[in-house]
Design a protein that fits this description.
Structural class: alpha/beta
CATH architecture of the largest domain: Alpha-Beta Barrel
Number of helices: 8
Distance between the termini: 22 Å
Strand content: 5-15%
Strand order of the largest sheet: 1-2-3-4-5-6
CATH class of the largest domain: Alpha Beta
Helix content: 40-55%
Radius of gyration: 17 Å
């Protein structure tokens, strides 16, 4: 996600009733020459005003791939957090191998509404994210072997703060692993989560739909 593909995503949102989009620049796409970042983010600020924009991001820190300098990633993350706070829109947070810095920057900001997307950290990080007022979203990777820490985080996440996603086209659930992921696979993750949490799949589905509606459509956007 970045400011350059916004128009393509907007076309899809305008063509499908009930489909919304976000405005932001992925941390791996923040690489710019000196002085250009401000111009790029000014475009994001403008895009955030569109009535179909329901979130800021995805943004955050990716210290696993390190495609962009860490200082620039942190600067970009701060900008997104401030924009989310200014607009009242939730922020979609990307976090890979950067728990401490992501949580520290969120805590330093005034942003207290959003989601830690495709959660892959442990229960301690989840506890801190929840304490800051955020939702936590789980994807197909929770169904893989050797992801006990993610499962522990899912077990301690309150149902009213839990979301489910696919992160398409990546992270297909174990049952369909190796195939291109798509939204139709979300049921596999739902059933897995319901099973380990000891909840009914229909009840969990209803709860996560309500959570998503409240998070992304439950508050009026502030005018910039």
């Amino acid at each position: 996600v970045n400011e350059l593909d916004f128009e393509k995503r907007l076309e899809l949102a305008e063509a499908v009733e009930g489909l919304y989009l976000s405005a932001g620049i992925h941390p791996s796409s923040t690489v710019v020459e000196n002085g250009v970042w401000e111009e790029r983010f000014a475009e994001v600020i403008s895009q955030a005003k569109h009535p179909l924009v329901s979130a800021i991001g995805e943004t955050g820190l990716d210290f696993f791939r390190d495609y962009a300098p860490r200082k620039l990633q942190e600067k970009a993350f701060r900008c997104h957090l401030d924009l989310a706070a200014d607009t009242g829109l939730p922020v979609i947070i990307h976090n890979r191998a950067a728990d401490d810095r992501v949580l520290a920057l969120v805590e330093e900001s005034s942003c207290r509404r959003g989601v830690f997307h495709c959660f892959s950290s442990d229960r301690n990080a989840a506890d801190k994210a929840l304490a800051l007022g955020f939702h936590i979203s789980f994807a197909g990777n929770i169904t893989y072997k050797n992801t006990e820490k993610i499962r522990e985080a899912a077990l301690m996440t309150p149902s009213e703060r839990l979301l489910i996603e696919t992160d398409s086209p990546y992270l297909s659930p174990q049952s369909v692993r190796g195939r291109t992921n798509h939204p139709g696979h979300i049921g596999y993750t739902l059933e897995f989560l319901a099973d380990i949490r000891g909840e009914g799949a229909e009840e969990l589905a209803a709860a996560t739909v309500e959570n998503a509606n409240q998070l992304f459509r439950g508050q009026q956007k502030k005018i910039l």
